[in-house]
Fold:
Amino acid sequence: MDQDSLLKSAANGNRRDLSRLLTYLEQGMKLNFPKNNPSMKSSVMGITGPPGVGKSSLIGRIISYWNSRNQNVAVLAIDPSSPRSGGALLGDRVRMDSADSGELVYVRSLSTGGHPGGMSSSLISMIELLSYCGWENIVIETVGSGQSEIKIVAFADKIILVDGPDRGDIIQAEKAGIIELADIIVINKSDLPGAIKAAESIRSSLSFADGKTSPDVVLVSAQMNEGIDEMMDLVENCDSPDWRERIKIQERLISLWDSRLLSSPNLNRVINELQTGSISLDDALDDLAR
Amino acid sequence: MLQGGSPVRIFDTMKIVMAKPGLDGHDRGAKVIARSLRDGGHEVVYTGLRRTPEEISRIVMDEDANALGLSTLSGAHDVLVPRICELLRETGMGNVMVFLGGIIPDRDHESMFSSGVRAIFGPGSRTDEILSFLDEANSRVESGASIGVGDEDGWRWD
Structure:
């Protein structure tokens, strides 16, 4: 099938063809379809946090939340690829009980490797395609290992930062500048001891000195299915302050800039020239940005 | 590149779904295989335990995988494996290559192969043998052979 018939069929709800198109986008190909149609605007939620805090389990609950309201949801679960072999083990589905349950959910696992045009530019196209194909809610999951991977969530409209009790990993997130992107901070595993204390300590460390509104900190338990409705209420009704919107836009720019730089056909030549010392870093950037 | 069946991946690696159909609760083997396939450069999606044939074919579809590895120890392979292969063919995924592992008695190998499976790896199989099988499969695809579950090609790894 050619591109247009695949697009038409995917937009009519053919999952097989949607999957194929997503693979093309993953490989850096560009597709032509109407973008940013306001009547087909999906709500895009980004979920990030350190490994092991229960992001996938939580997404399992979020899928059920929307499905039970008769809304569909597509999940893009991003895992890092192995720097040694280039391979990847994508296991997020294991913890999403509701992922394979019916027509109202689509889950796709993605690895950070193998994106000729950069992960972020593929990701934007994928979001646009899912939106075009009628997916009302889109969730992007990224694991909190490595700044650039975390910051991919900046392409979401609403960002949820997940942490667990007794971890202290949120300090790492603070270093990575993620806290400022978060619209809401969720402490998962509220059924375990230490959760309330963890939430308190995050709340107190979050009171921004410069009068910026800090994000709400909420307790949930994905395992026990507690606090999910309240969390979704908060997410759907929170207003991102202007300064946070600006930070998101800035992160998107940086991310796309990186992509564009790394996918430049001149990259190798410029690196060679830098190595031999025939040009300066400034020259190199000018050259690549042209 | 947009013509024809599923996209030809640019690299000589595959996107593989590793699945545990049926009711047995032992996935150490499947996890070891998943890890070694990753170390061999492949992209592996693990499904978790106790998936139904319908769920497995749905996952293969959503992930646009090139290959499906099934692991079963329960003795129900003679029902589950043909059903999964049939579902893949029915839903337009006849191009997906299927391989099998776990406890599959010798007397059942022939019927597993004829339901569409291309290779069977029992206890004691070496992970590098499985990687060689995938390499061989890849080079066959590159040279134009069709070794999916819906293809007539008689090739098998025996």
Summary: The domain at 3-241 of chain A is CATH 3.40.50.300 (Rossmann fold). Chain A touches chain B through 34 residues (CB under 8 Å). Residues 118 and 262 of chain A are 7 Å apart (CA to CA). DSSP finds eleven helices and eight strands in chain A.
